Amino acid sequence: MSEQTNTLVEILYLVSAVVFIYGLKGLTRVRTARRGNALSSLAMLIAIVATLIGAHILNPVWILVGLVVGGGIGAFAAIRVQMTEMPEMVALFNGCGGAASTFVALSVIWLQLLEKAANGQTPALALGAAPAITLVLSVFIGTLTFSGSIIAFLKLRGWISGKPILLPGRHVLNGLLILGSLGVGAYFAFSTSHPTAMMEAALVITAASLALGVFLVIPIGGADMPVVISLLNSYSGLAACATGFVLSNNLLIIAGALVGASGLILTQIMCVAMNRSLTNVLFGGFGADDTTGGGGDKSEYGPVRACGADEAALVLESAESVIFVPGYGLAVAQAQHTVRELANLLQSRGCDVKYAIHPVAGRMPGHMNVLLAEADVPYEELFELERINSEFKNTDVVVVVGANDVVNPAATDDKTSPIYGMPVLQVWEGQTVIMIKRSLSPGFAGIKNALFEYDNTMMLFADAKQALQDMVTELKEAAA
Asked: Rounded distance, CA 85 to CA 71, Å?
């Protein structure tokens, strides 16, 4: 590469890194999230162009093939994947990032070992300790991210049980896999063995980390999926960062570090929102055998006040203030557009409407924000837990659409409950609570929700979209 070309590539990498940072900053707020996403995409385009220039890979045919294939897959996913499937898609993307890092590292190992073996050099002299350790980390973290993400995808998809699967001796097994990987990694870094043995060592690390990813995610229940997805996203960034050191690519180091750090920060935010430590999430097996707080079986409930859509509409008709609380049931029913229609109808009657967003509502961070943004709900009407909790006591009607654990009063008044201390939306302080659910079944935490039995709670047992549509119809007929 000529000096001029190298300078151009470094300048483009610098520009890309700066745009990445601004894009990431934009993603921290709902109002600027779309712009942040567009800036991040632009930064990636600049990075790809710079890499192609630096590597002299300017063949238009291959570039066109890459654009068509990659763009086609992305377009298909954007058009066909439902919003309820977004968590699964994010898990797959995390896994793809980890797998890419693993394949790059393994290919570098293979090529360097072949080259040095052909020259009669020993692998230790060829690779050196620092490059070898970097390669090992890239393989280890990347493969762990891949297998863990696949298990998360299968759990979210419902193809394997979403409940924690607690294998006997799992902690010992995980410890042995980690220690074994470190030991083989040390052998790989400092041994002067034959190249074939070195490649076999790399494959052993790959197999061990593949198994470790499975064993780490299998014990984690559905209630912790937002945390798991955030953590796996961080892992994919760390794997990319390690791969950047492998390739001596400064931009990949920066981008990987940004993703890794932001993923860890988001993971911490999720843990705080659930009042749980990361260690407890990873090793607690939450939801596997919850005997406290009740299991949420219908037989455990006393009398509940059921209502129909007509009665709920009658309550809303006289309300001056309404807060909607979306949950995963909203996503399952694809009811985001219907709830927006109902909100618009209430606002046209002079009602003050807001949306209360809990950080871990749904199955991935920001799930509810994405759903409501798809329905063009104004950003000004979205309120996070800290800002909205004080307003419930002054609200006429709270409509909970498919949420459960994030509105469970056990978090505040039942010290025996596994979710005690978790910050929740205090919807029970509203004058009337309309709870839209298909049944009395529990949420991801698998525990009873005493809110169902409260005197000011009306249980509307129906599909969320149908229930909301029926209320819209009732209100329109009343206004006619």
From this structure: 20
Of the candidates 224, 310, 352, 405, the residue annotated as catalytic is 405
Question: What residues in the chain have per-residue pLDDT under 70?
Answer: 1, 58, 116-118, 120-128, 222-223, 283-299
Let me know: does 140 contact 207? Beta carbons within 8 Å.
Answer: no
**3-state DSSP call for residue 170?**
helix
- Tell me the two tokens of residue 70: 């990659």
CA 420 to chain centroid, in Å, comes to: 23
Instruction: Tell the CATH topology of 298-479.
Output: Rossmann fold (3.40.50)
Q: Write down the pLDDT at residue 293.
A: 46
C-alpha span between 443 and 327 (Å, rounded): 10
pLDDT at position 295: 47
Tokens of 130: 């620092």
Residues paired with residue 383 on neighbouring β-strands, in sequence order: 356
Which pLDDT does position 357 carry in this prediction?
Answer: 95
* Alpha carbon distance 356, 376 (integer Å): 16
Coil vs helix vs strand at 384: strand
Strand order through the sheet with 352-357: 382-384, 352-357, 321-326, 397-401, 432-437, 457-461
Who's near 291: CB < 8 A, 6+ residues apart?
A: none
Burial class (CB within 10 angstroms; exposed 0-12, middle 13-18, buried 19+) of 244: buried
Place of tokens 């990949």: 252
Burial class of residue 149, CB neighbours in 10 A (0-12, 13-18, 19+): buried
* pLDDT tens profile 84-115: 777 888 899 999 999 999 999 999 888 877 77
**Domain limits, the chain:** 1-80, 84-283, 298-479
Q: Is 405 among the residues known to form the active site?
A: yes
d(CA 297, CA 139): 45
